[in-house]
Write a structure and sequence with these properties.
40% helix, binds phosphoric acid mono(formamide)ester, 13% strand, single chain, Rossmann fold, disordered N terminus
């Protein structure tokens, strides 16, 4: 796992500078940024879900006309980048950015701080994915415009969590008292880390299903104990183990996070969900996956009523419309009273 302060001297250098000289204005912008879901109250989560519901009814509006959204992706992405860009386009904003850092002046040695300062000259908001944990926090400290964390290393993925929460609410009719089974790469999986943090408000029972090598990190288990979140750990993955699930959240074993590829080879195919394993599933159970899938869910499951991962990805559009609007100061009332809807 890569950490900013260990491996990136430019972050250390500039973050020291910023901590000393940050202006009040920068601090205000930092607070408008979405770096982690841990700062969101229950009310804030419910508010964003209400917003997303409005966007699901009417996604095409002009609420962000005249705004520029920058998408800076230092790591590959299909869903997150394209759904943020679709969200911006459907709201009338314009989009600038890059999907591959190789085409930027970072290859000439430009630091992340300078890149953020440059882009903030052009855009009203920056959506950023970065391979280093803490990069979004750092960017939010140096940026004069809000930063939305689109995933930072193995740390957090808060916009994914908002679409996951929206999907859980949509399929279960509640976020309360659910049995949520997290399967696969719980060590490096930023989506499961964010989801666990957000669910603290809703009295869940988590089941962590992972091999030893990819177990939920101790600090997240400690977080559960501190917050009174119930959890059970398993290594078996069969019909009996998952029979109690309301949500079965599958994850990919992420080759790109391993420093030892032999270890990756040992664990990569440990948990494949087969159609036969659904024989004891509860009728309300839904299978989610942040995607991409590699070898976690048999394709024969796609046409069962349990599969919900493609609708989940679609919900990314509505959740990210809500995030962009909220971050740019558009309220739920603005959305409800909006006269710019395009049918
Ligand atoms: N879920 C998710 O983050 O997918 P992408 O990596 O394709 O953005």
């Amino acid at each position: 796992m890569r950490k900013i302060d260990n491996n990136s001297s430019f972050f250390t250098l500039y973050s020291s500078f910023i901590r000393i000289f940050a202006t009040e204005n920068c601090k205000a912008m930092e607070s408008r940024s979405l770096v982690t879901i841990a700062n969101h109250s229950r009310e804030k989560i419910e508010y964003l879900i209400r917003m997303a519901q409005e966007f699901e009814k009417h996604p095409n509006r002009r609420l962000l006309e005249g705004r520029i959204v920058a998408t800076l992706f230092f790591e590959p992405s299909t869903r997150t980048r394209l759904s943020f860009e679709t969200a911006a386009n459907r709201l009338g904003a314009k989009v600038i950015g890059f999907a591959d850092p190789k085409v930027t002046s970072g290859t000439k040695g430009e630091t992340l701080k300078d890149t953020i300062m440059m882009v903030s000259n052009y855009a009203d908001i920056i959506v950023m994915r970065h391979y280093l944990e803490g990069a979004a926090q750092y960017a939010s400290e140096v940026s004069p415009v809000p930063i939305v964390n689109a995933g930072d290393g193995a740390n957090q993925h808060p916009s994914q969590t908002m679409l996951d929460l929206y999907t859980i609410y949509q399929t279960q009719g509640t976020l309360e008292n659910l049995n949520i089974y997290l399967v696969g790469d719980l060590k490096y999986g930023r989506t499961v880390h964010s989801l666990l943090t957000a669910m603290r408000h809703f009295n869940p029972t988590f089941h962590f299903i992972a091999p030893d090598e990819l177990a939920m990190p101790e600090h997240y288990k400690m977080y559960c104990r501190e917050k009174g979140i119930k959890y059970v750990e398993h290594q078996d993955f069969d019909a009996d183990t998952i029979a109690g699930a309301d949500i079965l959240y599958m994850t990919r074993v992420q080759r790109e996070r391993f420093t030892d590829l032999d270890e990756y080879e040992r664990v990569k195919d440990r948990y494949l969900l087969s159609r036969a394993m659904l024989s004891k599933a509860k009728p309300n159970m839904k299978i989610l996956h942040p995607l991409p899938r590699v070898n976690e869910i048999e394709y024969s499951i796609d046409d069962t009523p349990y599969a919900y991962y493609f609708q989940q990805a679609r919900n990314g559009l509505y959740a990210r419309q809500a995030i962009l609007c909220d971050t740019l100061g558009i309220t739920l009332d603005d959305i409800i009273n909006d006269k710019t809807i395009i049918s």
